[in-house]
Every structure is written in structure tokens, then in C-alpha cells.
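A reminder before we start the practical. When you read a complex entry, don't treat the lines as separate problems. The point of joint prediction is that each chain is placed relative to the others, so the output describes one connected object in space. Small molecules and nucleic acid strands, if listed, are placed in the same frame. In the example below there are two entries. Take a minute to note the order of the lines before looking further.
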Amino acid sequence: MSETPAAAPRSRRWMLYAPLGLAAAGGAGFWAMLRGLQTGEYDPRGVPSALLGRAAPDFDLPELEGAGLPALSAADLRGPLPAPVLVNFWASWCVPCIVEHPQLMRLAREGVRILGINYKDRAADGAAFLQRHGNPFAKLGRDEPGRVAIDWGLYGVPETYLIDRQGLIRWRYAGPITPDTLDRDLRPLLRRYA
Amino acid sequence: MPSLSLQPPRCRFPKALRPLAGGVPGRAGPSPLHRAAIILAFLLVAAPALAAVGRPEDRLRDPALESRAQEIGRELRCMVCQNQSIEDSDADLARDLRRIVRERVAAGDDNAAVMRFIHDRYGDFVLLRPPFTPVTALLWAMPLIALGGGLAAILLRRRRPGASGIEPAPLTEAERRRLAELERGNGA
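Here is the predicted structure of the whole assembly.
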């Protein structure tokens, strides 16, 4: 009986702390997740676009009657382009689109070319929306059936795509572009692909 | 931030469960009647899942083609109601996708071609059964990893005798004498 009773448990004392360590690590991970949710960096429902690195799908949309803007087709997104452009899907019935609109207006004033696609909307409502909140779009197509949107892999409005000068899709953002998103994500991207 | 819209997503949600799941205030647990109600609610909620959601006029007239379309639709995730297939979801987008699936099936595409059409646009996430790729390898291997980890833990414990870590204390002189007495059979 050389081994004292207390010796064995001491050698395995780490097992006592292992659950504590695991809980601490889990807690830290959870905290980081919640913080990401708060700042908008982490979106558990967010899905990467299947179109990244590809050219925009082919489409030819009619104009939105009453908006007084030229219609939009895929030809407007084919490279080479003088600068990156944004494609924004929106609708007058979409509340987050109202939240996002001032940011689009700001970008348009700064000279960023924004091409709009009005999604599943009544023409009169869409035109009235632009009248009321201002028009940031250089061109505007109307996708009333929502079929072009599906070719883009759209799953809600608003959604915004960045097309680089070669005409390739580089970024997709599902949800309203907030001032934070604008400064944190979009502006650096616009600079990178300028 | 998730994509929100005023247009209701119309995800199928077991609304009937909500008042029941909360329990009755001031009571410790669900009463038998309450419990029966919950089970009934589950059954009622499950029932419509057996029927296709789509409007009758959207369905294909050829039952063979329609059943193929449903088979494909059940493999595709509704991107709005993310835990439902497009066959089960009432979301607008799911309805559009159901229509597209039926159009492609009616046009003579085989199942793989229709799936590819949707996969091209929405990526891996739209497939309810994700493909095996380097990115999803960990996902698919997880059951094996968990099983292997469990087995390893069991084997490690087996190999060490006295795994509880506590050796019984040696007998004292008095105990040893008492034991010897008992063994001789004149205890008590």
C-alpha cells in the first residue's frame, strides 16, 4: 500500500476544471455571437449568394410606369464598366426599404451608380414611393412577377448587389443597408473595386 | 440584419400550440387534460403537413408529373421559412419556386436538372440534403466523430482499473482482527 488514497484524485484534478473551462469557452462564444447579432456582423439566417464571382443573370425588365426612369436590362451590368455599380431590389410595401433609402440617396449623391429593380409591386405605389422618399436610381426595372429576382437568388427585399467593373457580382447584402453597413462593408468594397 | 419585409412571410407555424405551450399560470405542470390538448394540437398541426400546400390550380394535371414535382419540392428549402421545404411553406417565394419546379418538370427536365436549376441560383443552402463537399465534410462526418469520441472515452476508462480513482483505505489492526474472527465463524 504505497499509494496514498489522495494521490489518485489529485492527478485527475483537471477533470474537475474541464467542465468549467468548457462552459467558459461556450459562454465566450455565445457572447461573441450575441454581439455580432447586435452590430449586424453576424446573421444566423444569412446565406451567401450563389452568384458571387459570376456575371449577373440575363434579364430585360420593363420600366416602372410613372417613375420617368429608363428601364433596366442585363446589358447595363456587363463589363467593362467605368465604376462598380449597385443593384438594389426594393418594393414600396417593404418597410426596411424605407429604413435603407436615405443611405441609397446618400450614395447616389456621392456619384455611385445605383440600378433599381422594383419587386412585386404596383407601378403606382412604386412611383409614389420614389416621389415621397426621393429617387436614387439611374435606371429602374420592374419585376412584377418576381422571376428575375429568382434568377438572382433573391429571398427577400431589400437586397443589394455590388457589381465590379468587369461585370462580376462581388457582394450581396440581404436586408436594409444601415449607416453602419454602409461604412463598415459597402464603402470599403466600393473603394476596393473602384 | 435579417431581410425583413412588410409582406408576411406566411411560414407555417403551429399557432394552436402557442397558448398551450406556455402552460396555465399558477399551476406547476400541465394537467392530464392540458396534456391531451397539447397532443391533440400536435396531431392537428401535423395533419396539414401531409397534404401539399399549393393551390389546386397550381398543380400539374398529370399525377405522375405532379408527384415528381412534389418529390423535388420536398428536397428544396424555402429560403424564407428556413426549416421548411418549398412544398410545405406558404411563403410567396416558395409558391414562386413551386411554380418554377412544375414548369421545368412539365417541360421535360429530369429531377436532377430541376434541382440544378434552383441550386445554381440559391446555392447549397437551398438543398435540404446538403451535398458532400470540403465545406460540408465536417457536417457529414459529425455523427462518426461523436461516435468515435464516445468509443475512445469508453476504451480509455476501461483500460485503467479502479477508474473511480478512490482506493479503499487499508484495514486497521482492530478491523483485521474482527474480520479474522468472522471468517473463523465465531463472530456476533
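Discuss with your neighbour: The radius of gyration of chain A is 24 Å. What might explain this?
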